[in-house]
Amino acid sequence: MRSVRAVVRQGGIQLRYDPPVAARRVIQGVDRAMFVRSIHLSRRALSLALMFVLSACRGVSQPASTTTIAAASPPAIGSTTIDRAPTPTATGVPSHTVSVAGAHITVPDTLGSTIEAVEVPAMLDIPQPLASGVRFTLKDYPVRRGAPATIELRRGPVDREAGEHVMRRFRDMYNFISNANIKARYVPIFAQPSVREQFVALLRFQGMAGGTGTIARLVTQFGSAERPVNNQELVYVAEGLISGKAVWVSIVAPVTVADPAVAASADDVADPVAFAQDYHTYLSTTVERLNALPPEAFTPNLAHLDAIAKSIRLDWPEPSPEDIATVQSRKF
After folding, report:
1. N or C: fewer beta carbons within 10 Å in the chain?
2. Which domain holds residue 208?
């Protein structure tokens, strides 16, 4: 199989996403075997691919109880810990590191000091099942809305519990990350697979800690309804893959911006008829304006949210022989 490489140049920085061979076999080769039966992978190649992705797909028994931790408190007892010492980040802002079940993130203090970290189980009773993983919730995030700011990591496409639906979703994300199209009008959203973005602004592709993967970040609003870009719906989104373990990373956090082009709310329209007639021109012009804004124009600073994505590290264990045998027994 030919190597896939996407090169993105931003501000003189060249980022490369060159997924491991095993990841390509899992997300492209194995998926192709699921749907195009005329193409056959050798048992040895399939086994190598499955052994690779299983490092992120170890079965999880019962979900751990939720633990809420604050930066000013002693480390919690159990699998959730917090490093209260200032941690350097790319932004130079004091930060703290939070860990749960082998997943670690570094959160700038500007985004809050209380983080809820919890293991989350697989969800099988939904149209597109989810494998198990971990979720971090920023409890005192500076922008308060109904939905909190969250960082979620979900295991890969050969998880024993989630089945073939996860494979299809990972294939879409793998293709998106591989193409690295900075003019994309749609980004796969793990938490809301059936929802489309109203627009895509400030799309950037960036690497994660130690070159372990690539993430696409953007500013958007969910849903296709025609309404103003507004500070009640504007969100920061980062979606990507940790290539070494085929783990999906999803960050969703509300943001606001003090700019005349951005309305206070979706209902802030002086003349609804005129707005509807000129909607597409309005949206294009407003997105161009957003694209020209620096990270610090937003609340919170987009660079501080980017720092979380860049800091993610995983210490998830290697698969057991039993796990490997179980997956090899499945019929793809």
Report:
1. N
2. 67-314
